[in-house]
Amino acid sequence: MKISILGGGGFLGRKIAERLAADGHLGGKPVTGLTLFDRAAPPKPDAAFPVHCLAGDLLDLPPQAIPIGTEVVFHLAAIVSAQAEEDYELGRRVNMRGTDMVIDACRRLVSAGDKPPRVVFTSSVASFTGSQNAVMPDDARQVPGNSYGAQKAAAELILADASRRGFLDVVTVRLPTVIVRPGRPNKAASSFFSAIAREPLLGLETTLPVPDAFGVWVCSPRRAVDWLLHAAALDAARLGLHRGITPPGIATTVAEILAALDQVKPGASALVRREADPAIAAIVGTWPPAFEATQGRALGFAEHEPIVDVIRAFVEDDLQATLRERGLGT
Ligand SMILES: NC(=O)c1ccc[n+]([C@@H]2O[C@H](COP(=O)([O-])OP(=O)(O)OC[C@H]3O[C@@H](n4cnc5c(N)ncnc54)[C@H](O)[C@@H]3O)[C@@H](O)[C@H]2O)c1
């Protein structure tokens, strides 16, 4: 099975590539080739199959990014929430027109005689609006409260239509906020949900822009990767025209994340300083903190581990690399 990851140099793209390299198979089929595409050539994981790392712009997608014979495309390339809100043109360009380019690339494969490739698309909790008391049912309407969420919802629709027309075969995973993100803070409005655990574990101070009682829908990188791989192998006949799935994340609060942090490293939460940020609060304040995720469970998307295990997973998987990357290691 040939696989491409667009956005293969990003946080989740790298993790999927590493998992595929370690497993050597997807949905019971051996991986025979992996192409990683991003603005800068992504790092090459050690794998028993050929891995091609390509640099380029999604808007000018080279045919080698999705070579003939590709069966699965992970479309992760995106401009994330706060950046898409700050730079409207860039967000629209990558999140919408970039997705159009992916559709055209898949159409070329089908014209050449390939089966419509499975496209796993990463949409977001940010494509919904809900109050802090909301528990969203599976059939909740997507009413985005920010440009990023609107661009994701629009991309979901055109990908679903391209599936109906037989150009590709999309499964969209509407990801929760993924914590704990390794490395440095990024331009997602949700960046602080990771920072309040990561920075104290690095021994650094950080700020909290919302109240402790703030509710948030999260998942770990491990579980996000499990879900995206599950989506890649899912029988789409079970979905019909409805291609967007909310997997079972964790409905938690900032206070619970900080308590879990203290369980893993006693006293660490003292490094979190309360500093209100109305711009960030305005974006994340529209994201619903809980979803029923009934369909996701029924379709076999793995249940989540408790929040304390999410913090432990960062310590096990990413703490050392983050210390090295930031020049904090011994
Ligand atoms: N991390 C989260 O909490 C989260 C939550 C919900 C949804 N998502 C979605 O999941 C996906 C992966 O998220 P992530 O956290 O790994 O993001 P990321 O920012 O780490 O990775 C996205 C990658 O896309 C690349 N990219 C951007 N513009 C490009 C272009 N024009 N051409 C080629 N590549 C381009 C970036 O260089 C980056 O490496 C994204 O689509 C994101 O919107 C993430």
**In CATH, what is the homologous superfamily of the domain at 2-178 and 220-245?**
NAD(P)-binding Rossmann-like Domain
- Structural class of the secondary structure composition? alpha/beta
Look up the CATH topology of the domain at 2-178 and 220-245: Rossmann fold
CATH top level class name of the domain at 2-178 and 220-245:
Alpha Beta
End-to-end Cα distance, whole Å, is 41 Å
* Rg: 19 Å
Tell me which ligands are bound. Answer: nicotinamide-adenine-dinucleotide
Placed side by side, the strands forming the largest sheet appear as 5-4-1-6-7-8-12
Secondary structure tally: strands: 14
CATH architecture of the domain at 2-178 and 220-245: 3-Layer(aba) Sandwich
Q: What summary fits the major beta sheet? A: 7 strands, parallel
Strand content: 15-25%
Shape: globular
Write a brief caption for the model.
By secondary structure, this protein is α/β, with parallel strands linked by helices. The protein has eleven helices and 14 strands.
Structure description:
There is one protein chain. The chain is α/β, with parallel strands linked by helices. The protein has a domain at 2-178 and 220-245: NAD(P)-binding Rossmann-like Domain (Rossmann fold). Helices cover 38% and strands 18% of the residues. The chain is built from eleven helices and 14 strands. Strands 5-4-1-6-7-8-12 form a seven-stranded parallel beta sheet, sandwiched between helices. The longest helix has 24 residues, at 88-111. The mean pLDDT is 96. Nicotinamide-adenine-dinucleotide (NAD) binds next to helix 1, helix 3, strand 7 and strand 9.
